[in-house]
Amino acid sequence: MNVPADGTKAGLRGWLRPDVHNERRSLIFCAVAAVLGLVIAGVGLFHARGTRIAGVPPEDVAVVNQSPILLSDYAAQLQALYNVSPSQATPAQKRAVLNGMIREELYVQRGIELGLQNDFIEVRNSLVSSVEAQQEIDANATVPTEQELRDFYQSHLQNYQPEGLMTVTDYVAPDLSSGQRAVMAVRSGNDLASTMAADGLRTSGATDDGQEFYFAAEAHLGARLFALAKGLHDGQVSDPVAVGGRVHVLAMHSNQQPAPEEYSEARDRVLADFRADKIARMRAGTDRFLRERADVQIAKAFK
Amino acid sequence: MQADQAPVPTSARFTRPRVIAFLVAIFLLLILAVAISATERRERAELLQADADRILDDPRLAPKALAKGRKVFLANCASCHGADGRGSTATGTPDLTDQDFLYGTGLVSEIEQIVLHGIRSGDDRGWNLALMPAYGQQIPYPREKLPPLSPKEIDQLASYVGAMNGQAGEDPADVLAGHNLFEGKGGCWDCHGRDAQGDPAIGAPSLANGKWLRGDGSRRDISRIIREGLHSVSPAFRGRLDPLSARTVAVYVAYLHARKETK
User: What is the pLDDT of residues A162-213, one digit of tens each?
Assistant: First the structure.
């Protein structure tokens, strides 16, 4: 009986016993494992089609180079193209949609490989707006507490004032003195319409449609007359004022100054503004973060 | 003495009955964990791969989807729509238990898309078409040129909408003027339709069915909506909910809508 070269007396039995130390066995196992690893790596290298996962996850209809094509997108595409649900679609419809989606995914991946974002303005714009949209999505998905909304409302009260309302008549006087005379008469208690007519004042027609929002009144009267009108109370007439070569007298019938709405009335706008504010802050934060992280070098001439 | 204290050989320790029992227990636990995991994965796969619109009709899948969907709803949707899903006319949050669909027709697949991509959420796969303009502002609608309306015109439109919903006491002249504004200057017909029945393809509600998204349908509330517009958003949950949660909450919401119908 031959004695094994490593000096163990167990021979083949010793090889199979894990409790018996065997140096040669260890070396052979290491070598076999190394060769096996190299073979697998070589096969992977020369036959690679992207790293594959064990199977397609149940929420996906396909996985293209590790990018999933979601079942929900597939169903939406079937609905959009053929107006059918997955169970109603014919095999041909399903195949057409799936092939189209796989093709799109492959082309997107190819576009990234080719660095098309450097060449096409549309791609650049889409990427920029997609990053911004992602911030918007994140901001919209957060639900602020009522207290946060109330605090925001209190600190932005001026935004929750509905437009003021005014009913004003813009009279044009033949000259300054007749304007002054008419104003004095009205202020001393005379009837507005008859006094104006008696002194030759006619409406300019700018605000004859009755009650107007402030922005409409400003557009109709012009900035200077509107500023004058805003300060008038119900039943007041302004001093004559010369604007654009004409003498105007304003008679205020009713002036409803803007006043903040109650929180409960304005809540939906407060929530929308809160989110818009959050989006703006997130964008500013992202801008800062990206600039800090980036290595931006500007040529001397452009600093 | 030394012979008495000699260490027990390794092989002898492994043959002790309690060690074997321990290993068997571990093995059984492992089998149990694998079985539970496999069952969960199978159920998950079944729910995700089933036709979304047929899950509620499947007596095996529906209870599982509803149980999970309710949990997801309470954690993510109830803060706005309420735990009972009835929404709030005070905040303009839609009632999810009625048969009045703002978007689509109440199919699970349609609701799933809203859950994932939202309404005016910023997600370009969401519903981003319609927004009620604020006709009492200088620029009523940023995306399209629309003329602002005067307070009188807003009142006339409110009269017309009120009359459509059976409100008594509206001045016929105002109702007629409101109708002309609806079909003319206001451009309301463009979204709500000439019959004012709305358009679920763009999220325009019916103005003639007595259901109100915000307020109670009083002249004051209708005027306010025309003057100030509406600003509601439904978030996109695609980055926050996993596909199974999105699917099951859609099933649950479709069930809330359908439940009333079957009563």
Answer: 889 999 999 999 999 999 999 999 999 999 999 999 999 999 988 888 999 9
φ/ψ of A14, rounded to 5, equals: -65, -35
Q: How far is A36 from chain B (nearest CA, A)?
A: 30
Q: How far is A119 from chain B (nearest CA, A)?
A: 23
Cβ distance of A272 and B136 shorter than 8 Å: no
Name the helix (H) or strand (E) containing B178.
helix B172-183
ipTM above 0.85, yes or no: no
Name the average pLDDT for chain A. Answer: 89
**Cα–Cα distance measured from residue B225 to residue B230, given in angstroms and rounded to the nearest whole number:** 6
Tell me how far CA of residue A236 lies from CA of A74, A224, A225, A232, B147, in angstroms: 68, 17, 14, 6, 31
| Phi and psi torsions of A20, nearest 5° | -105, 125
pLDDT band at B48 (very low <50, low <70, confident <90, very high): very high
For the range B122-125, what are the long-range contacts, defined as Cβ-Cβ under 8 Å and sequence gap of 24 or more?
B122/A133, B122/A134, B122/A135, B122/A136, B122/A137, B122/A139, B122/A140, B122/B236, B123/A133, B123/A137, B123/B236, B123/B238, B124/A133, B125/A76
Among candidates A136, A212, A268 on the partner chain, residue whose Cβ is nearest the Cβ of B122: A136
Contact between B52 and A75 under an 8 Å Cβ cutoff? The reply is: yes
Tens digit of each residue's pLDDT (9 = 90 or more) over A107-121: 999 999 999 988 899
**pTM of the complete model:** 0.77
Reported as a single tens digit per residue, the pLDDT across A120-172 is 999 999 999 999 988 888 888 888 999 999 999 999 999 998 889 999 999 99
Kindly report each contact of residues B46-50 with a partner whose C-beta sits within 8 Å and lies 24 or more positions away, as own/partner. B47/B244, B47/B247, B47/B248, B48/A58, B48/A59, B48/A71, B48/B243, B48/B244, B48/B247, B49/A58, B49/A71
| Minimum-distance CB partner of A141 among B10, B138, B237 | B237
The minimal CB distance from A143 to the residues B45, B80, B242 is found for B80
Query: What CA–CA distance (Å, rounded) separates A223 from A221?
Result: 7
Residues on chain A touching B231 (C-beta within 8 angstroms): 268-269, 271-272
Q: For B102-161, write each residue's pLDDT tens digit.
A: 888 889 999 999 999 999 888 888 888 778 999 999 999 988 889 999 999 999 999 999
Maximum separation of any 2 CA atoms in chain B, in Å: 119
SS3 A173: strand
Which residues does chain B have within 8 Å of residue A211's beta carbon, measured at their own beta carbons?
A: 150-152
| Residue A265: predicted pLDDT | 85
Q: Where are the beta strands (DSSP E) in B145-250?
A: none
Phi first, then psi, for residue A250 (nearest 5°) are -100, 135
Cβ–Cβ gap B228/A162 under 8 Å: yes
Q: Cβ(A216)–Cβ(B148) under 8 Å?
A: yes
Give chain B positions within 8 Å (CB) of A265.
224
Query: Would the pLDDT of B2 be above 80?
Result: no
Question: CA B224, CA A263: separation in Å to the nearest integer?
Answer: 14
Interface contact B240-A141, CB threshold 8 A: yes
